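Notebook entry, structure prediction.
Reason for the run: the old model in the group folder had no record of what sequence produced it. Starting over properly, with the input documented here first.
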Amino acid sequence: MSGTPLVGWDDVAAALPDGLAVLDRTGRFVRLNPAAVALFGAEDEADLLGAPAPFTLLEEGAVAGEAAPEEDHSEHPGHADEQVALWAPPSGPGREFAYRSRTLRADPAFTVVSFRDVTDERHRQRRIAAMAQTSIALASEVSLGSTLDAVARQIVQADGLAGAQILILDSTGRELRLMGSAGLRHWDVFLDRLLECRDRGARLCMLDSLTERKPIVVPHRWSQIRQDPAWEPLHGYLGELNWDSFVSVPLTARGRAEGVLNAYFAPGQEIGGRTLEFLAAMAEQAALAVDYATLLQREREGARRNERRRLARDLHDSIVQQVFSIGMQANAVGVLGGRGEAVPAEAVRAFAGEVGALSRTVLADLRAMVHELRPPSSTRLGLQDAVSALVRSTENRTGLRFRLLCGRDLDAVEAELAEDMYRIVAEAIHNVVKHAEATAVTIRLGVRDHTLSASVRDDGRGLAASGGGRGAPREGERGGTDGQGWEHGYGLTTMRERAERWGGSMRIRSGAKSGTTVRVVIPLPVRVPEPARSEPDGLRRAPRAVPLSETPDPAPSAS
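New structure, fully documented this time:
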């Protein structure tokens, strides 16, 4: 009795809840237990025999569980010697297996692997990490555009999505701007093409999410868009992405709509309750970032108002007193002159010196205060006239030759955006004057394809000669102004932040013989249709997207 096993090893392997497989020297399956067959989605063990396994075999002399260079060894659940293999089936989403392997003592040509499916567990870990990374981004001192880009990247990486976009509403709640994206190529005219699709009759599901204040799920959205001629302006751009279904989640903060989060799902990805909960949580993080940026902007505007009040008090308390002193000195000279007696030259020189010193102090203080107190140039004059006035002033002061080319529709740019663009151009001109050693500057300013753009090009010595050396940003890269060699620090950082505040980008090109060109591109916002009982202007009635409360049933005719 004692020499006879109670249960056969084949029976034990068949009853194991984890997968168990035997591999040969080439890493191909020799035996699999029923759990292993099920984990690989096969119907029978024979379907897998001879097929390559996703597991890495131990090299001769290696310690069991030692890291293999091509595998994923980020934090994963389980024992310390577990590794994680990524398996991509012929169809459907990929799976992740945590496994341990040992060579057979009786025959080292074979390796035994025990493994289990940890896809969902690692998915949850990535989502938790994404939330943590997003919180770090929110706490860091970066621009809103950079923060929302980071949120979009975390969403794509955590759930393996094809892409994500974050669009936010302006302060009026009527215009949308694309402020964050991942997975999709940065394209300055995306919103313009989106408007064109809407004008052709395409239905924008994100507007449903925005107006109804709830997530909208559209299964097989790409096949619908691909078959709809109204979406033709975006067929090429959206076709660059390998995606299928679409989800739009509203961004809300303190009961107020802040924008939408658009998620593009890869083919075969399921949109379950946990996925939607994760997207809602990330949308909440994005909404907090937008709300924080709005509050910060208001705080800065309040600080500016307070500073102007302080300057006004300083104007009264210091400059007025100095002017009063000048008046007293002038009265004293008048009294001396009225006596009809000769005034000593020494006394005249003393009066002149005191009045001159007071005048220079007053002039310096007035220039500084007037510069800070004056209304923004673009607000008073309009963007084109403000830049023209700046160019004339700089020409007279420096002798530089300027060529200013302005397009149409600049008057339609909202005042706050015009002010930021004016400040960007002014800073670029300042850098040319201070560092470029140029003789001529060309400025182009205009609105085209629903995009405000500006460029400042000089014929100076370029970045390398003027002290730069870290390289200009790549074409299409958001921001990237750190490569500018004119003036590292606050000025260029402010230029970048002003552009990114509106979802725009700044690019810099430079050469030793071609000078430097700064180009700023800011997409203009998409106007949100007014909610009404009838169909909003510019939108046609179409089969609506599927709300969460309904069973998804794709309608091929939906656009």
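Summary: Residues 61-78, 467-489, 532-559 have pLDDT under 50 and may be disordered.
The old model has been moved to the deprecated folder.
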